[in-house]
Amino acid sequence: SYVLTQPPSVSVAPGKTAGITCGGDNIGIKSVHWYQQKPGQAPVLVMYQDSDRPSGIPERFSGSNSGNTATLTISRVEVGDEADYFCQVWDDDSDHYVFGTGTEVTVL
Amino acid sequence: QVQLVQSGGGVVQPGRSLRLSCAASGFTFSTYAMHWVRQAPGKGLEWVAVILSDATNEFYADSVKGRFTISRDNSKNTLYLEVKSLTIEDTAVYYCARDGHGSNTGFDHWGQGTLVTVSS
């Protein structure tokens, strides 16, 4: 089955830029979605189809996808961005959705 | 506004069954595919199942195939998940989620989640 690998944690200072990677075999040919999940809350879609932002998501969030890595970038990081972030793809071969392992973002 | 309100969780013994519900409002339920996603305590997200808007097809994660059944009643704007032969490993918060409009655009709205605890 298709596997998506994320770093367990990323630390960033307020006002700086955080990059969260999502590795998968030739992921560049797939559409990648990203979710933010704060403690005790349901996930929220923050990026879809690699680089499109849903309404209400700040422009500070951007996405890219190429080769074997997709990246969610958070610019001018705020304390409120502290959360777990999960990438997701649809795997055509198995007809399954797959989530990444998740990355905890800590704002120092 | 879009709302997905879940019910039906609780504590259940191993081997027993449970039905989870997800009542939708604020959008035309019958035109959207719907999903179930679960999250074991302290763990990541695991996609469980999807059902197409007209209920003509369903897909399941390998871990639940044959034990879980996703269904919907478009006349009641409600999504269901029948979970059978529960094991300790099925303990999780279960979320329903709406598929975004268009092809493969992510899950754009989620329910509040309902905890299923499998314990003897």
Features:
heterodimer; A: 108 residues; mainly beta; six-stranded mixed beta sheet; three-stranded antiparallel beta sheet; 0% helix; 45% strand; B: 120 residues; seven-stranded mixed beta sheet; four-stranded antiparallel beta sheet
What is shown here, in short?
Chain A has 108 residues and is mainly beta. Chain A has strands spanning 9-12, 18-23, 33-37, 44-47, 61-66, 69-74, 83-91, 96-99, 103-107. Chain A has no helices and nine strands.
Shape of chain A: globular
What is the C-alpha radius of gyration of chain B, as a whole number of Å? Answer: 14 Å
Helical content band of chain B: under 10%
Q: Which structural category fits the helices and strands of chain A?
A: mainly beta
Task: Please tell me the overall pLDDT of chain A.
Answer: 97
Percent strand of chain B: over 45%
Q: What is the CA–CA distance across the termini of chain A?
A: 36 Å
Oligomer: heterodimer
How is the biggest beta sheet of chain B arranged?
A: 7 strands, mixed
Tally of strands of chain A:
9
DSSP helical segment count of chain A: 0
> Could you estimate the helical fraction of the residues of chain A in percent?
under 10%
**From the helix content, strand content and strand pairing of chain B, which structural class follows?**
mainly beta
Contiguous runs where pLDDT drops below 50 for at least 5 residues of chain B: none
Average residue-wise pLDDT of chain B: 95
Strand content of chain A: over 45%
How many β strands of chain B by DSSP? 11
The greatest interface between two protein chains, and residues involved on each side, is: A-B, 26 and 21 residues
Order of helices and strands of chain A: EEEEEEEEE
The main pleated sheet of chain A reads as:
6 strands, mixed
Write down the secondary-structure element order of chain B: EEEEEEEEEEE
